[in-house]
Amino acid sequence: MTDQQQIKDRPSSRNVTSLKALKPYVRRYKLQIGLIGLFLTLAAAGTIAIPAAVGQVIDKGFMADDPDTINLWFWLLFGAATLMAVAGGMRFYWVSWLGQRIVTDLRRDVYSQVIRMEPEFFATTRTGEVLSRLNTDTTLVESLIGSSASVAVRNLLMLIASSIMLVVTAPSLAGVIGLMILLVALPVMVLGRWVRRLSRDAQDRVADFSAHGDETINAVPTVQAFAQEGRESDTFAGQVESAFDAQKSRIFATTILIVLVIVLTFGAVTFVLWLGAHAVLDDRLSPGQLSQFVLYALLAAGSTASLSEVWGGVQRAAGAMERLADLLTATNSLPKAEEPAVFPAGSVGLAFSGVTFAYPSRPDEPVLKHLDFEVNPGETVALVGPSGAGKSTIFQLILRFYDPDSGRVLIGGHDIRDYDPTDLRAALGLVSQDVVLFSGTAAYNLRYGRPEALDEQVRDAARLAQAHDFIHALPEGYDAFLGERGIRLSGGQRQRLAIARALIKTPSILLLDEATASLDAESERLVQQAIDEASRDRTVLVIAHRLATVRRADRILVIENGELVEQGTHDELMRDSGLYRRLAQLQFPDEVAEPEAVDTI
After folding, report:
1. Contact between 415 and 338 (Cβ < 8 Å)
2. What is the dotted CATH code of the domain comprising 3-329?
């Protein structure tokens, strides 16, 4: 099972050990944690001092009828409250700061890890699920660090300190309170696991509708073209209702937990108060001691109840951190060379030597079989063949999105596994049929592969790709916003902009993947001119369904069922290759004497 399958199939754990993954992030901010600890202790000390001050006010002030004593203890009471307020405010500031800081680091690291994963990762992990982890799950972790953890520590301190003061004030009654606290803790342990399981299920339902929404919103034209708005809306509505039902179950379980804990807690306090009242009547306690004991009992009860609520939040955060840790620890299956070779400058050749490859999701169905061919430096070579022959897979291997199962892919005389993948891809220019543009300006998209490019270099690349005129004609020129995925441009304009984006990198090898498919004649003519300009003085490998795109190639490789079956020029292949002639028939009917059934290239 791959790391990606484990991410999707991993069962819910029954403990909070996944929170250990936060240790490296927490350790970075020892000073802030020290300040939180200081202010937390001061706030707890101020809170614990208040019941003692109240008890002294009653016994030494009211009961003794001494105004000076009353004044003194009221000032001390005000001082304790002020200390609690100031220290509590500072604690809140630093805890909130720490929560936001750690979640910022966590989101950055998760995104940095995911953006470097190989394509197989995204074949087995839904984009919406990853986004849900980046947003929803990190928010749960932020809530834990920025709130729940501090509340838990504060209430734990309060519980310990108030328990000690209960023993000091009235040992006999303290024993009863201790027994009651144990009775409160039992449902927390039992119901807490239930809450966590339901929370994990609720998070999964959110991931489901996030994935569906991301997929359909990014494909709105297709949805509308097939008139499926109603069906997709119903599907999404069903998914959000399923998420709501899961949240209802979680809320119901949490409600039961809170109600039970509060009833048990304050039932215990009421019982102890009844015992204390009888102790005062029997002169075993003073009124001030009883008041002090009651306040400490309330503090202990409130701390216990808060801990029960916090525990549910801790378990939800543990589930979220488990999912995030899966992303952080996912490994890229493509190994890197310990001492990568330096990628050669200028035009370079490439070769496939005995390459056999099957996609990891279909290991028993090889796409390429013992493939051998060479492309000389500066040569333009076209790949043609039926759909599914393996042409696009060849590009995937050149870009090292996958490694071959056997054989080698060589560029510049080196196995591409000897290069750092980043250096390798920086030297390659890719133009695909399905052009992906980013939400931004024309200049931003052109500079995507080379952010440091000067304005003049951007314009030169655009002119070379026949894109300068239409970009210059936009209302704001190169600073014009192109819309989501370049929706404001036509198909031909997007293709030419993609060619310019590839050229601005001054690539050693240019990969053109069906770059003129589905274009009108004028757009194809302009894109073909751009390709001709781009092909000068560099190695070019081009795929096309339309043979007009590849007719002027120096050499054509005919691929069928993952094997090289023919190679030569267009004229040679039209004369000697039956497969190529069939593929060419629709595009060049005059070249074939007898029409016959054809495959698309």
Report:
1. no
2. 1.20.1560.10
